[in-house]
Amino acid sequence: MTAHEREPSHENEPWYVAETEPGYITGPGCKLIANFMLYATSESDEQSILNMRRAVACVNACAGLPQDALDGGWTAAGASTYAAKLEKQRDRLLAALKQTQSDIVENDCVMADTAIFIDSVIAEIDRVTL
Prior knowledge:
This protein is mainly α.
């Protein structure tokens, strides 16, 4: 692959069902992603729109997951392993932030506002659950 080429990828999330244009799925910046055929009867149109909303919800729910995981048909065990990896990463980052906070307080090198800010960041990280 040359420097000017990049590996093909899907459109970034979030995706939306366009409310003003029935049958269209758009992405960030209102970029057209897909156009679904709507059928002649209103019942079929309603079903098509429900199907589009379901497809969009699935895509958005997968945001951030590696493509190879989706292609490989992740199992519950695979998803659990991935979540555990993310939890370990969060724990390492939290520990590093707490150490930085401790170092700052020990060296009296910042004002109290910074320590309060760091406390709020730590509290927010502690609230994150996967």
